[in-house]
Design goal:
This protein has one domain. The chain is built from 5 helices and 2 strands. 6% of the residues are buried.
Amino acid sequence: QKVVIVSLLKKSTNQKANSLSSILGIFLHSTHAPEKVIKTMVKMGLSISVDAIHDTVRSLSAESSHALQYLGQTLLAAYAYDNFDINLKSTVPTAEKSTNSLKHLTSGLLFPLQHGVTRDDLKCSYELWQKS
């Protein structure tokens, strides 16, 4: 409660002091809160606007994309892929819709190699071919 009160007081004196409302806005977005709930929180001064939330998500996505591109270009990253299936059942089956609700998807993960691994450490393909 004290954090919310202090945050509201800071925001009333400085419009750029909206870290709590930004975090709450992103949380509301991530939990798929209805737009009415977000607008109510905005009117109470507890959240940033729906447009600001969307701008923030776009900005964070762009930053993430650039960080992943940079990491991949360093060649000091490991890649992991996984195939998975999701059954997207319709709540009301209709004759017009196809009954094939099974979707086959692939997820990917890119993470940095740790413990001081260098590009020279990874130059071992010749040695691997000789031993295989």
